[in-house]
Amino acid sequence: MTQAPAAPGTSLPNPLDPEETMSRDQIEAIQLERLKETVAYAYNRVPLYKEKYDDAGVHPGDLKELADLAKFPFTEKEDLRRTYPFGMFAVPREEVARIHASSGTTGRPTVVGYTDTDLDNWATLGARCLRLSGVKPGWRVHNAYGYGLFTGGLGAHAAAEKLGTTVIPMSGGQTEKQITLIQDFQPEAILCTPTYLLTIGDAMQHAGIDPRSTSLRVAVLGAEPWTEEMRHELEEMFGIDACDIYGLSEVMGPGVAGESNEKKDGSHIWEDHFRPEILDAFDETRVLGDGEHGELVFTSLTKQALPIIRYRTHDLTRLMPGTARPGHRRMGRITGRSDDMIILRGVNLFPTQVEELILKVAGLSPHFQLEITRPNRMDELTVKVERREDCTTDRAGAAGAELQKLIKIHIGSTCRIDVVDPESLPRSVGKLKRIYDLRDK
Ligand code: DLL
């Protein structure tokens, strides 16, 4: 009698890396050793680090325990811009196997580089993330992160290959084609930004295709802040599990941290390769303890081409003990970037807070944008949000009033709400722009 074939992936080996199962003590021992090496390496090879440390009166030899890291100066995006393009590289140009760059909205792009070993480590950590999120070797993986200078496409691609999946390198955009390929190639997993998955789901519904009818089972989403409410929305829309993946180009790219499919309780940071710290958002000299909310800072522990020490991400979150991978701490959701913070008459507000509240109101969809204007020398915020198809124009007014009330109660700001028709706001094709600052500069 012939046996029924095994479900995809179940027959292929999928072992964890030994570092994934290490205890916290073992991880910290590795961190200390690698931190000493990295700080000395950067000091000896990158003039900017030598200059900074000499100016601050610290020396790599001062690093005796992990807490000593706090004595060393920070690195900022501006440092990479000042040394554009390759001034912070620590290896001769011929040893740089790949370059990526992020355009940013202002100024010069930040350029980052990788040796062959860096690329291999990156793929390994990305593969850890995908495995933790439930992606299995042998699956087909539809990769809709943008390919090119952005680290999303090629980073996620290498991760999926390393895990042993079949990668479909679709890149971002061309939503109709995305849908055709999802239907024809039957991928089990999709990798893209949360707002782009929403765009794809929306477009499917408009084409009369039920997103729940596709072969997709898991989505690994990142590159922009998103909320639990958005997770719920996407999981319901597609009938999938949606997990987070975090990263930034200056530190590596996607795969610095990834989330467990079973727990869905925040992304585990691969602490054998990165040492995270949380800074007090109001006093950068204070490093906060686990559980406290502040700015995330990273030090690379193995990077060769671009070692990065105490890099200020400007991402706001907190660290928590590991669960699915107990030796590695988790990060909470990124509530926002300090540069995305809107200060409205003294009250701080992030787009994620608005997203959370919008998705509590039955008639409102997750398609929204925030507009800041200054009509009478006073800043004013307008939340433009699409009503859902099944919410009539009559009911839209009440939905808007409910949102206005929720924002007042939970955030403390008074803002205008403009409930607009479905399909009237721009759709995401990657990282979505949420804030439109229309004040005269
Ligand atoms: O966005 C890398 C990436 C690609 C991560 C694909 C995940 C998936 P950058 O373009 O350098 O790199 O932008 C990094 O994006 O500092 C955060 O503000 C934001 N970000 C990235 N992942 C998440 C996430 C890539 N999971 C910046 N949640 C970071 C919230 C995220 N924000």
UniProtKB/TrEMBL annotation:
Domain AMP-dependent synthetase/ligase: 90-298
Pathway connected to this protein: Aromatic compound metabolism; phenylacetate degradation
InterPro entries according to UniProt: Adenylate-forming_Reductase, AMP-bd_C_sf, AMP-dep_Lig_C, AMP-dep_synth/lig_dom, ANL_N_sf, PA_CoA_ligase
Reactions catalysed according to its record: 2-phenylacetate + ATP + CoA = phenylacetyl-CoA + AMP + diphosphate
Location of the region described as Disordered in the Swiss-Prot/TrEMBL record: 1-21
Claim: Protein biosynthesis is one of the keywords in the record: no
Transmembrane feature ranges: none
Enzyme class: ligase
EC number(s) given by UniProt: 6.2.1.30
CDD domains per UniProt: PaaK (cd05913)
The UniProt record lists the keyword Cytoplasm: no
Keywords in alphabetical order: Ligase, Nucleotide-binding
AMP-dependent ligase C-terminal domain sequence ranges: 346-439
Any GO MF annotation of the entry: ligase activity
Family designation: Belongs to the phenylacetyl-CoA ligase family.
Protein role: Catalyzes the activation of phenylacetic acid (PA) to phenylacetyl-CoA (PA-CoA).
Protein name as catalogued: Phenylacetate-coenzyme A ligase
Organism name: Zhihengliuella alba
Gene behind the chain: paaF
